[in-house]
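Researcher: Quick one. two chains, 589 residues in total.
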Amino acid sequence: MIPIDHIMILSAILFAIGVAGVIIRRNAIIVFLSIELMLNAVNLGFIGFATHMHSMVGVLFVFFVLVVAAAEAVVGLAIMLEIFRNKETLNLDEINLLKW
Amino acid sequence: MTFQLTQIDFQTILPSMIMFGMGMVVLLLETLRRSGSTTPLAVVSLLSLAAAGYASAVQLGWGGQGFSGSVIADDFSLAFNLVFVTATALVILISIPYLEKSGLKYGEYYALLLFATGGMMVMGSSLDLLMIFVGLEILSISSYILCGMLRADVRSNESAMKYFLLGAFATGFLLYGMVMIYGATGTIHLRKIGAALAQPEMYSNPYIWFGMGLLIVGFGFKLALAPFHMWTPDVYEGAPTAVTAFLSVGPKAAGFAALIRVMIEGLGRMHNEWDMVFWVLAALTMTLGNVVAIQQNNIKRMLAYSSIAHAGYILAALVVATEEGLGAILFYSLVYVFMNIGVFAILILAATPKNERLTFDDYKGFGYVSPLLGLAMFVFMLSMMGIPLTGGFVGKFQIFKAVVDQGYIWLAIVGVLNSVVSVYYYLRIVVVMYMQPQDSKSINEKPAFSLPLAVAITASLAGVVFLGILPAGWMEFSSHSVSVLVASF
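Model:
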């Protein structure tokens, strides 16, 4: 069996890549993609711990995270569509009417 | 393991079920509405809020648990339900004229407010991390849409986008914190986490420390605590004014309810470790909120920073984590609902379809144009400052008393100094209203009468003054409500 520490290191690396993406990238879609990567790092962590501890709760949690991520994607992409309709850009540096 | 749903299970989530069910009904009614105003939907929403408030009130003192112990209807969650219901009802009242003025003809607006309220109720009544996450997301996703409700307005779009991206980012941190806590203790149930922390070897487990830190960061984003507050002013400024009023009271109170559950029932044994973290966050939050609010010229943006500052005061009460302090949080939440929504109601009343009237200059001489509204604004500002005979004073007094009683003298000093700073910008609007002459750009005619706004302003005024003069009832009720929390220390 894969040791839990290895799984958590992988999950932490994925999470860090996601955080870095949110901070560095300027396109709203890519930023959102990075956030999804963070959520998947979370899922990996839950599955890892659930397998390690033989507990079902973590697996259950993953389903909820997946559903919520899907709901968030629906709303988020709708917001981006609306902003693109009005401004024709998704570059976060150009979406700056309000002081960021 | 067999799993079956009993009647008790559904009773524990009755108030939030009413919210979700009636939200669906409002959505259905919206499809039947061919033309005409959305006001009937607002009336339906108000009635369902009354029903949820009644359902919460009759359950007081029950404390039943449902769904394998993941939700509880104890006095803590029910008292917070009453705060949420009050907040949303006032927001709906101020939304009716706002939607007319801004030409928003979406009945979904009210449905989303009801869903968000249901989400807040789930957050307050949850006993495990999963339910807190689900409630928080119901609330957040509804709020993202509400922020972007003015679809043709780029500022509203921008506000929704920023709220969405940073909200989802914060969710990531919160969830990663939950993973760590689950990994360390093997459970997501808050009271079992509390029990697991009784073993001393737990504290050498790095996961619990990472988990606690990430949870605090996640909640910090959601509650707009400095240094995680950057999104707040932008989102609050761009969102429709009625939604800003909602965001600054409802989700804040719900966030604090969930934070109290996690920190007291779950991680209560680690109080000596986390109190200094919150000490620093509270001091930073109130200082930053107040200092930056001074420089604002837009009243909505000023109120955004003021709400950051108030979150700082409330957080100071969490640092002490005594019954007195936690009771003060509940007390202050209700006072803040009244005074903040009152101010927003006046702003909406003064707005015209062409000009939102949100700068200080617009209110030159306003106290003479409309003496009653000027007076109401004056009382709300006094309450925000914390002047005696208003609810704001009693709330702040209770918080700082609890803080001093537990020996956090310096935190109380920082808090009181901050209150002094806040006088400057709250009084500024009073000075502008009464001591500066009107000019061609300021509001020069009396705002038209509007029944829902008159009700909202009167109710808020009554709440602020009542809680300032006769606070004993709600004070005792709030300290009783927090006494049902099973603190694990």
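The longest helix of chain B spans residues 154-185.
Researcher: Thanks, that's what I needed.
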